[in-house]
Amino acid sequence: MGQETCEEVEEKMEDDSGDEDALRSKMKQKALKQCDRYTTKYAECASGRTISVVWQCRKQAKELNECLHQYTNDSVLEEMKKAYMLQQNEQGSVRV
């Protein structure tokens, strides 16, 4: 049994787009957890500000976005899809 390509994984997941949505949600939740200190720093900077948050908190926003991007990019999602499909194969519940 060979290694599945990203395209094959995507095709199988297209059968149930709810699974991909769930994986994206899980990916975002993990990113927020991993980047909690940056989220807190940005929230503290933004507190009590309105329009000035754009320039006053630019550094904190950049740090937060850089952190989040480490955990929410296409390669992370592809790895999560592969792990999901492996898990489904092991459980014998993959639809053909």
Automatic annotation (TrEMBL):
The keyword Disulfide bond applies. It comes from the Eukaryota. InterPro entries: Cyt_c_biogenesis_Cmc1-like. Keywords: Disulfide bond, Mitochondrion. The keyword Cytoplasm does not apply. Residues 1-23 are annotated as: Disordered. It is found in: Mitochondrion. Pfam families: Cmc1. Residues 1-20 have a biased composition (Acidic residues). One of its GO terms (cellular component) is mitochondrion. PANTHER family: COX ASSEMBLY MITOCHONDRIAL PROTEIN (PTHR22977), COX ASSEMBLY MITOCHONDRIAL PROTEIN HOMOLOG (PTHR22977:SF5). Belongs to the CMC family. This is COX assembly mitochondrial protein. It comes from Solanum tuberosum. The gene is LOC102579090.
